[in-house]
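Re: [ENG-882] Designed sequences occasionally contain unexpected residues at chain ends

Forwarding the minimal case from QA. Structure tokens:
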């Protein structure tokens, strides 16, 4: 398979954002007197967008009469604090530089709010990644294919030459719905056994492995 375009997930793939997600979640929970959650619980809650994160964190989820207020408080806090503790995983900048230098088209897609995705893209990835698609009213969240298709369209790329890179079951399903291969990274929020149980077939133990995969092509 010829590869000209790589679309990346953000949280758990390019960046370790777990601490900031946890702190904003617990800030919102504290504000309304709800129990807080440890970092591993928050890890298990992420992957389907921040609304689903808060639904899982709030007692009774969306049935709680204060849910929308907690969610609003979370969003306000997270947009203001999304870079407090977050950062690129080791080797990511070198990987992106190598791909950009080789002429690959790069994009990032995330179920995170568009404002947060834009903030992180501009601060961390503007040298390599020009297209960043986050949660928008007109674009369905992953695992629907819309975000990837939107990114490929904005890049002017060919979906048939695109590979998706992520760290979760949501990412595997997103790639499947797009009809493209998925490279699953092993440094993110889910482990290999879980990813294999979800159908993962290509694994990157280091960011350099992604460069090797795309240069050789995927079967």
């Amino acid at each position: 398979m010829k590869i000209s375009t790589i679309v990346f997930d953000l949280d758990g793939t390019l960046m370790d954002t777990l601490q900031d997600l946890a702190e904003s979640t617990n800030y919102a929970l504290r504000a309304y007197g709800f129990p807080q959650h440890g970092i591993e619980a928050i890890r298990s809650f992420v992957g389907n967008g921040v609304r689903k994160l808060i639904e899982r964190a709030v007692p009774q989820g969306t049935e709680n009469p204060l849910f929308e207020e907690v969610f609003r408080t979370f969003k306000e806090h997270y947009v203001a604090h999304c870079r407090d503790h977050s950062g690129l995983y080791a080797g990511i900048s070198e990987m992106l530089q190598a791909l950009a230098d080789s002429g690959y088209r790069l994009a990032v897609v995330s179920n995170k709010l568009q404002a947060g995705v834009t903030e992180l893209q501009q601060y961390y990835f503007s040298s390599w990644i020009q297209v960043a698609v986050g949660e928008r009213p007109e674009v369905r969240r992953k695992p629907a294919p819309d975000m990837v298709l939107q990114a490929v369209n904005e890049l002017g790329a060919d979906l048939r030459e695109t590979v998706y890179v992520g760290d979760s079951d949501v990412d595997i399903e997103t790639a499947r719905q797009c009809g493209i291969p998925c490279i699953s990274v092993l440094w993110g929020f889910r482990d290999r056994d879980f990813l294999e149980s979800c159908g993962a077939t290509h694994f990157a133990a280091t960011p350099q492995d992604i460069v090797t995969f795309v240069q050789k092509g995927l079967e």
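QA comment: On inspection the terminal residues look reasonable. The first strand starts at residue 5 and ends at 8. Proposing we downgrade this to a documentation issue.
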